[in-house]
Amino acid sequence: MSTASPSASEEARYPHGSAGYRRVVGAVFLAGFAVFLVMYDTQGLLPQIGSGLDAGEAATGWTVAATTLGMALGMVPLSTVGLRRGLFHRMLVFLVLSGVIGLACALMPTLVALIGARFLQGLAISLVPASALALIGERIAPEAITSATGVYLAGNTVGGLCSRLLPGVLAEFASWRWAMGVMALLCLACGLGVALLRPRQGSAIPAAGAASSDGSGAMLRTLRAARASLEIPGVLAACVIGAALMAAFNSAYTVVGFRLQGPELGLGPAAANAVFLLYLLGTVTSARAGRIVGRIGLLPALLLSAAVVAAGYWIALPSHVVWVVLGLGVMTGLFFLGHSSASATVARLAPSSARSTASAIYLSAYYVGATVGSALGATGYEHRGWVATALLGTLYAAIAAIAALLGSRAMRRRREVGAARGVRD
User: Is residue 140 located within the same domain as residue 276?
Assistant: First the structure.
């Protein structure tokens, strides 16, 4: 009597602590770091870019928004690109491409050209996070997915911190063009690290459903995968939660620089940029998200995240640097708990044949939230100050909490219906 051998995809599911797990997690950490390293690298250079290209604050701000917009628009339509070679290969190729475009950004002669290049860079890096999260769902054992996702998001946190701090430091000694060039080279170095960490076993396994990724058939498969994913209430709810929490989070960090450097608090640029060190709190909560969720449960973790994100705005309301830092600190730590939990939920609940598309949908929603939060937050701050931004942030957090409650209820009903059908059968 012969025993069926496990499939290649089953063999490639690495348990926590295994050599394959460490290589995959190390690779997605570097990918997550590199994505955020280049995504926000103009945010700390906006005054220098504006001065060098003779542009105002609103116009130069699009060097950040264009990249985020490119990511949001590219996630789902491009989710089938390169799947024939596998998720790891696709993640590596587009990570390197984003670094090459970053070098080109440093050479752009006009603001319009720079914004256009940043948009293309956003399209390129849009495939990296979706590939990384889908890779976790495909290669990591189910019980270790949340922990692996937390490590990836910790890379996001460190990359986001370096993206905002390093360019400003570099600009003290050279022009903004040199600063952007160095950031692009760091991105390419991360690409080399990802290539070296490629798992030796099962590394050529293509993504599920990637037998053919050409023509209209690929788009139809993407649409079917999107429908299959969004029919799962937990996946849809997680997308709404991610978008709403990111809207609240990005809104705060978009306007806090204006507040810290304005007449209300009067800090200099270097001191104001130091607030981004609070991102390190996100590294801690991202890496421990799986442990926290395992201890208190998914729904309580999401509700706690939404509540503290909203509270952070109001803690930061008094006109004193200590309160601003404290408010942003608690907001940052608990935002990454919610984001880690929501993104891990998508990877866990999505059908195996639709994980790449499901991750793309989640991240597309996430960056739509980033764009909306940034734009509306800045508008509110310009007209009514921090109170208006706080009201908007509280609204976004409330949306996240409601989505968590409704998603949990819908998933419970779905399980009850499935159990009842199983009993009848």
Answer: no
Contact assessment for residue 386 and residue 319, using Cβ atoms and an 8 Å cutoff: no
Considering the domain architecture, whether residues 178 and 52 belong to the same structural domain is answered as yes
CA atoms within 13 A on the CB side of 121: 33
Count CA atoms closer than 13 A to 154's CA, side-chain side.
19
Structure tokens belonging to residue 89: 């290969």
Check whether residue 382 and residue 408 sit in a common domain: yes
Q: What is the dihedral of CA 65, 70, 72, 76, to 10 degrees?
A: 180
Domain that holds residue 162: 8-210
Q: Let me know whether 110 and 66 are in one domain.
A: yes
Give pTM, 2 decimals: 0.73
3-state secondary structure 194-224: HHHCCCCCCCCCCCCCCCCCCHHHHHHHHHH
pLDDT in tens, 156-197: 878 888 888 888 778 777 888 998 999 999 999 998 988 888
261/161 same-domain check: no
Of the residues 192, 210, 228, the one at which a domain ends: 210
Is residue 206 domain-shared with residue 218, that is, in the same domain? no
Instruction: Name the domain count of the chain.
Output: 2
- Report d(CA 256, CA 247) in Å as an integer: 14
b/e sequence 219-232, b meaning 16+ C-beta within 10 Å = eebbeebbebbbeb
DSSP per-residue letters across 244-307 = HHHHHHHHHHHHHHHHHHSTTT---HHHHHGGGGGHHHHHHHHHTHHHHHHHH-HHHHHHHHHH
| Closest to 124 measured CA to CA, from 205, 70, 69, 46 | 70
CB–CB of 33/190 below 8 Å? yes
